[in-house]
Specification:
Layout (H helix, E strand, L loop, with lengths): L1 E2 L4 E2 L1 H11 L4 H11 L2 E7 L18 H9 L1 E7 L5 H10 L18 E2 L7 H7 L3 E6 L18 E4 L21 E4 L2 E5 L6 H15 L5 E6 L20 H23 L6 E7 L26 H4 E7 L8 E3 L3 E2 L3 H9 L14 H4 L12 E5 L2 E7 L2 E4 L2 E8 L8 E7 L2 E4 L15 H8 L1 H9 E3 L7 H4 L7 E3 L7 E2 L2
Parallel strand pairs: 3-10, 3-11, 4-13, 4-14, 6-7, 6-10
Antiparallel strand pairs: 1-2, 4-12, 5-23, 7-8, 8-9, 11-12, 15-16, 16-17, 17-20, 18-19, 21-22
Length: 494
C-alpha cells in the first residue's frame, strides 16, 4: 500500500493504470514503482549496546549522523530483537519469525551443516519478486555452505564475511578451533583473514555504489556491519577519536558510515523516497569489558534474557512519511520489519506462518497507535526464559552465565553460572529489572504463566538448563529440543 498525505492506493493499481496508459510498457511500470514505493535500507550493527548511540544516552561516543537521523525520524525506545545472540537474531529479521520456528535457535559455527532453509521466504526474496534490486554488504551468519549464502536467498549482490569476525585462527581462547576467515564476493572467496580495519570502509563504499547504481529503480540495501563485535578494529580515520577507547572509536566509525549512506541518498535526490532503519542485532558483550559496549540503564547484555540482551537502539527515517523528532515507546520487534515492508512495497507476504506484525501505524505516528503484540517471548536457544506483556515482564527460573570480572583489551573476563528464581518486573518503572514485584502482583504472574504452555506448544522448549550439565554447555552440547507443533526444520546438508 502506498501512503501519502493525500492518497492511499495499492501499488499494483498505480502500476496497472500506468501500463494501460502506455500500452503495456514495462519501463513505465518500473518508473512509477520507483516513485511510489520506498527504497529500503537496513543498517545492522553487531553487539552494539542500547547506550552506545548518542541519542540513546551514549557517554564518550559521538554519533552526530545517527543523532541527526533520529531528529529527522523516529527513535524506538522499546525495540526488541528475537534473540540475544547473532544467528537467531538475524534469522528472525530475515524471516519475520521467532528463530525457534525456523529451526535456527543457536549461533552457527564455520562449516555448520545447517543454515537458513530454502523453504523459508526471506525478506530479500519478497522484495526481489516485487521488482526490487537487492544488495547485501557485511555479515550474513545464516550458514556458510553455498546453498545457505545470501545469493541463494534473494540478494543480487553480496560482499562480506559469512559469519562473526572472531571466528578465525586468532581468537584469544580458540586459536586452533576456527579455520581461516573468508571474505566473499558473491559466492567466491576473494581473501582469507582480511584486514578488518578496512571492513567498515569497504562495506560503506559498496553500499554507496549500490545506491548510485540503482537510484532510478526501487532497491533494498542490507548493510550489516561486523562491528563492534570483538575483535575490534578501526581505521586510521577514527583511531583515538572517542573517550571510550577503541570500542568508542569503532562506534564513531559506524556513525561515519551512516553519514555516508545518508549523503548518497541526498546526492542521488532519493532521500525522500528511502526508508532507512538502523538497529543492533543484540545487546553488548559485557564479558569483554572495555571492548564491549553499554546497555545502561538496562540489565545485563548479550547471551542473556534480561533487557540488555534483547532491547537494542533503533532509529527509523523516511522524510515526509515518518514524523520527525518523535520517540515511540510501544513494544515492537525486528520480526515486524518483514510484514511491514511487504505492506509498504506491495510485496507478497510469506505463505507460511510468521510472528511479525505490521507496525506502520506506529512508524507513521498515527494517533493512539498501539503495539500489535499481546506478548513477547524471550528464548535462549530452545529454552523459554521470559515473557513480556504490556508493562510486565515475567522471568522464569533460569540459570545463566553472569560476568564476575569483566575482561580487558580483547580478552574475555571471568563468568560463573548463577541460578535466578522466578521474578516479575514492571518495565515501565524499572527498565533495569532491579526489583522483583511478583509477591505484590500474584494475578499478573498467574496471567503471564498461562501464556507459557501456549508458546511452548507452538514454538517448543528444551529441558531446563538448571538441570543441565553446565560445564558442557560451552563445549557444544545443548539441551535436547522439544519442537513445537509449528516449528520448521533448518536447511540440512546431507
Amino acid at each position: 500500500m502506498y501512503r501519502s498525505k493525500h492518497l492511499s492506493v495499492p501499488v499494483g493499481v498505480l502500476i496497472t493504470v500506468c501500463l494501460a496508459m502506455m500500452g503495456g510498457n514495462t519501463s513505465c511500470a518500473e518508473s512509477q514503482a520507483s516513485t511510489t514505493r520506498p527504497n529500503v535500507i537496513i543498517i545492522l550493527t553487531d553487539d552494539q549496546g542500547y547506550a552506545d548511540v548518542g541519542c540513546f544516552g551514549a557517554k564518550g561516543i559521538e554519533t552526530p549522523h545517527l543523532d541527526r537521523m533520529a531528529r529527522d525520524g523516529m527513535r524506538f525506545s522499546t525495540f526488541y530483537v528475537a534473540s540475544s545472540v547473532c544467528s537467531p537474531s538475524r534469522a528472525a529479521l530475515m524471516t519475520g519469525c521467532y528463530p525457534q520456528r525456523v529451526g535456527l535457535p543457536f549461533v552457527l559455527d564455520p562449516e555448520s551443516t545447517v543454515g537458513i532453509s530454502s523453504r523459508e521466504e526471506l525478506l530479500p526474496q519478497l522484495l526481489k519478486r516485487a521488482g526490487y534490486a537487492t544488495g547485501m554488504f557485511g555479515k550474513w551468519h545464516l550458514g556458510d555452505r553455498p546453498e545457505f549464502l545470501p545469493t541463494r536467498h534473494g540478494f543480487d549482490e553480496y560482499f562480506g564475511l559469512p559469519y562473526s569476525n572472531d571466528m578465525w585462527p586468532y581468537h584469544p581462547l580458540q586459536r586452533d578451533f576456527h579455520p581461516d576467515l573468508p571474505l566473499l564476493e558473491g559466492e567466491r572467496v576473494v581473501a582469507y583473514n582480511p584486514d578488518q580495519s578496512k571492513l567498515i570502509t569497504w562495506y560503506t563504499e559498496r553500499s554507496v555504489a549500490f545506491i548510485e547504481k540503482h537510484k532510478d529503480r526501487p532497491f533494498f540495501l542490507y548493510l550489516a556491519h561486523n562491528a563492534p563485535h570483538v575483535p575490534l578494529f578501526v581505521s586510521d580515520r577514527y583511531r583515538g577519536k572517542s573517550r571510550r577507547g577503541v570500542y568508542g572509536d569503532v562506534c564513531m566509525e559506524i556513525d561515519w558510515s551512516v553519514g555516508e549512506v545518508l549523503a548518497a541518498l541526498k546526492r542521488c535526490r532519493i532521500d525522500d523516497h528511502t526508508l532507512v532503519l538502523f538497529f543492533s542485532d543484540n545487546g553488548p558483550w559485557l564479558s569483554y569489558g572495555n571492548h564491549g559496549g553499554s546497555s545502561a540503564p538496562l540489565r545485563n547484555g548479550k547471551t542473556t534474557s534480561y533487557e540488555g540482551g534483547f532491547r537494542v537502539p533503533c532509529i527509523m527515517r523516511w522524510p515526509g512519511h515518518i514524523p520527525a523528532g518523535r520517540t515511540c515507546q510501544e513494544m515492537v520487534t525486528a520480526m515486524d520489519i518483514l510484514p511491514t515492508l511487504a505492506s509498504l512495497t506491495g510485496a507478497k507476504a510469506p505463505a507460511q506462518k510468521i510472528d511479525g506484525k505490521n507496525i506502520w501505524p506506529l512508524m507513521a505516528g498515527q494517533q493512539d497507535a498501539k503495539s500489535p503484540h499481546e506478548a513477547f517471548f524471550y528464548y535462549n536457544g530452545w529454552q523459554l526464559e521470559a515473557v513480556r506483556a504490556g508493562q510486565w515482564k515475567l522471568m522464569l527460573p533460569i540459570c545463566f552465565c553472569a560476568v564476575v570480572e569483566p575482561g580487558k583489551d580483547g580478552i574475555p573476563g571471568k563468568q560463573a553460572w548463577t541460578n535466578e528464581p522466578l521474578a516479575l518486573y514492571n518495565l515501565h518503572d524499572d527498565a533495569g529489572e532491579t526489583t522483583d514485584v511478583s509477591l505484590e502482583h500474584p494475578t499478573v504472574v498467574e496471567r503471564l504463566l498461562r501464556l507459557v504452555p501456549v508458546v511452548r506448544e507452538d514454538l517448543g522448549d528444551g529441558v531446563s538448563r538448571v538441570n543441565f550439565e553446565k560445564a558442557n554447555f560451552f563445549q557444544g552440547r545443548r539441551p535436547f529440543p522439544i519442537p513445537g507443533k509449528n516449528t520448521r526444520p533448518p536447511g540440512i546438508v546431507p
